Amino acid sequence: MKVQGVPMRSIWVEPDGWSVGVIDQTRLPHAFVKVKLTTADEAGHAIRSMLVRGAPLIGATAAYGVCLAMREDASDGALEKALTMLRATRPTAVNLHWALDGMRQVLAPLKPETRVASAYRHAAALCDEDVAINRAIGEHALKLFQEAWDRKGRKGRLNVLTHCNAGWLATVDWGTALAPMYMAHDAGLPLHVWVDETRPRNQGAVLTAWELGQHGVPHTVIADNVGGHLMQHGDVDLCIVGTDRTTAKGDVANKIGTYLKALAAKDNGVPFYVALPSPTIDWTLHDGVKEIPIEQREGTELSDVTGRLPSGDIATVRITPPGSPAANYAFDVTPARLVTALITERGVCPATEEGMLSLFPERRTERSTGT
Ligand SMILES: CSC[C@H]1O[C@H](OP(=O)(O)O)[C@H](O)[C@@H]1O
């Protein structure tokens, strides 16, 4: 997408042909800072610290982390060490494991001296595939936006609610849940986006609002607990969110608070869509609530808030009493029964096993043979 009118992706290989450029998302929206990753450890830290975040971008960063590791030492031991380190960075987004499994599958059979070039080729292909997937998701979701606008009699504006950031900053480009927002806005559909602030890391208030503002998409930042009230008063025409891991039966892990939004949507008859790139499907899982690992992060992410002072300086302040512990669950699981439909790069389907297999029939044979 564009930043100050300049097209760019969220991750790129620098002109030196090997170091990896990313945007420091912990500095947004007050500063736009690019960071150069030069080692696998720096890539691992970028993921753990959420300098880069979002399931697809985590996968892409990990893939380039393997590239950086191979530059230093392309031995079998170094490959396994890098894969293990990167795999341990964050537990919930399955794209991380999908990307690393792919890098291992490509590199392990090769002679060490050929691994670096192959690693960069595969990482680049993974990024290009992500962009194509997200563009396709956007096009499929755009049709749902247009249907919602028609149902509304094309009056007023189309109010869409989203949670967290599933924009181009969470992917290599376009985003998943935000891709149709850009397309709808560019097509002239009078879209307005309710942006959940998304405590405690505030990916909505900080990242989604910044992205939409950069593209000129009308939006309003709201507290996480406002969405239900807006739905009760007919001010939300549809919800669309991203996902970090979706099971073979359509249970959706996403940023903490998504489940509560889905409950409110169900109670008010508001369509609740999940933008789902296929690398985010974990075909091995069936019961998301029981089986999807939920990341728990430092309590200080909840007890402390960082922002810009009137002086323009950036500061961090504590908002909780010194003695109060804070529990920081980073994701929750929305059961498939609360999801109106899954929007994948191959089209839209019900959040059911049969619905997903109808779009990914090759998985049917795997499941029947247990491969
Ligand atoms: C398109 S995946 C975006 C997904 O990732 C976010 O989590 P985090 O910011 O912690 O990486 C959130 O769950 C988004 O929906």
Automatic annotation (TrEMBL):
It holds the Pfam family IF-2B. Pathway: Amino-acid biosynthesis; L-methionine biosynthesis via salvage pathway; L-methionine from S-methyl-5-thio-alpha-D-ribose 1-phosphate: step 1/6. One of its GO terms (biological process) is L-methionine salvage from methylthioadenosine. The active site is at 244 (proton donor). One of its GO terms (molecular function) is S-methyl-5-thioribose-1-phosphate isomerase activity. It comes from the Bacteria. Keywords: Amino-acid biosynthesis, Isomerase, Methionine biosynthesis. Its EC number is 5.3.1.23. InterPro entries: IF-2B-related, IF-M1Pi, IF_2B-like_C, Initiation_fac_2B_a/b/d, M1Pi_N, NagB/RpiA_transferase-like. Belongs to the EIF-2B alpha/beta/delta subunits family. MtnA subfamily. Catalyzes the interconversion of methylthioribose-1-phosphate (MTR-1-P) into methylthioribulose-1-phosphate (MTRu-1-P). PANTHER family: METHYLTHIORIBOSE-1-PHOSPHATE ISOMERASE (PTHR43475:SF1). This is Methylthioribose-1-phosphate isomerase. It comes from Corallococcus aberystwythensis. The lineage of its organism: Bacteria, Pseudomonadati, Myxococcota, Myxococcia, Myxococcales.
